[in-house]
Amino acid sequence: MQLLDAFALIITLTALFAYFNEKFLKLPSTIGVTLVGLVASLFLLAVNAMGANLVPTAQKVLEQIDFGTFLMEGVLSFLLFAGALNVNAEVLRKYKTPVLVMAVFSTLISTFLIGGLTYWILGLFGMQIPLIYALLFGALISPTDPIAVLDLVKRAKVPQKLESLIAGESLFNDGVGVVVFAVIASLAFGGGHGGHEAMGALDILRLFAQEALGGALFGAVLGYFAFLMLRSIDQYIPELLITIALVMGGYALAQTLHVSGPIAMVIAGLIIGQQGRQHAMSDKTREHVDQFWEMTDQILNAVLFVLIGLEVLLLKWPDNGHLLLLVMVPVVLAVRWISVGLPVSLLRKPFALQPYTVRMMTWGGLRGGIAIALALSIPVESAYRELILTLTYGVVVFSILVQGLTVMPLAVKAAAEGSADVMQNR
């Protein structure tokens, strides 16, 4: 099957799954299509166990659309830019300190805590792996997925402060997580991964600074240059094309310059979403740009989460894999609570952060396709790739289906507590 045929089939399945969800399940889109895709995959596995030879055919289709390449080098730039467009930059600027602390330090704390605990737990299960691989799992599973989290924020009527913290952290810790993963991968695989040689401490710091800070600076330059172009004309079609070129060309150039494309797209999206909307777009242009990026965001989201549901067909479950996941899922959640709780407790008074902040950011910190894509980027020849991929997939599916389905009551409670806080402060 050719790539175009495989992609056409995935788009068709996405439409059918979205229809089934809207008609019968009526779940939030990301959760519904993931669930339907997962059920369809399990059905194929069950039918295959009874003698039908359907799974190999389905696997060939999925292998034609490389999930990691599709996300990390394809749709991620669009989704991050679209997400950043709708973030209130003024509120985000007000809470930039807690957002950056949680995006950077919470991600680093979580990486090493999860990595160390994973190394110890796998040893208890008789699955000895090098510590560097356990840290690799910690790096890819620590960041919350902005694609899943932003969809949650849109539906949850939480206080604006909390909404900005959740959205801002998820947008930035994704880029930080990708950089941390790249650094650890370079230590694990040397020159065989991403072209990096084995590095010392100064090399690690230099790479981190180049990727993270370089990505932020590059995104600011791109966003400002696009803003000047948008301000100089008043015709929505070329203006819309400028935003598309900013995303596609900017992300490709960021990879060429070896700076973080995800961070660059977030910064550029914030600039266009704030300055571009207010000072460079007419009402007509603003309407068309918003409609295009909202539609693009929803369609690509649906395709991405259908692929997540179907990816179970490519997994090779280790012995005691299900029991291992029963241990690892609570561990990941506990570490998330610790890594968020520490900075929130330190910053609570200066920024008036309420107790529900930690609860909401822990249970609402969904993992998604980025974690799976990073796990898939581990070299195929690695003996520990399938184990890490299985752990990642299990945590992601639990996050999307269980946390995603049960977080709304927590959001309602947070909204009620937030309203009470506002009344008390008047």
Automatic annotation (TrEMBL):
Membrane topology according to the record: Multi-pass membrane protein
Chief localization: membrane
One GO biological process term: sodium ion import across plasma membrane
Gene Ontology cellular component terms for the protein in this record: plasma membrane
Record key words, sorted: Antiport, Cell membrane, Ion transport, Membrane, Sodium, Sodium transport, Transmembrane, Transmembrane helix, Transport
Pfam families listed in its UniProt record: Na_H_Exchanger (PF00999)
Stored InterPro entries: Cation/H_exchanger_CPA1, Cation/H_exchanger_TM
Domain of life: Bacteria
Cation/H+ exchanger transmembrane domain location: 13-412
UniProt keyword annotation of Zinc present: no
Transmembrane keyword on record: yes
Subcellular location: Cell membrane
Family: Belongs to the monovalent cation:proton antiporter 1 (CPA1) transporter (TC 2.A.36) family.
Record-given protein name: Sodium:proton antiporter
Organism listed in the record: Deinococcus cellulosilyticus (strain DSM 18568 / NBRC 106333 / KACC 11606 / 5516J-15)
Lineage of source species: Bacteria, Thermotogati, Deinococcota, Deinococci, Deinococcales
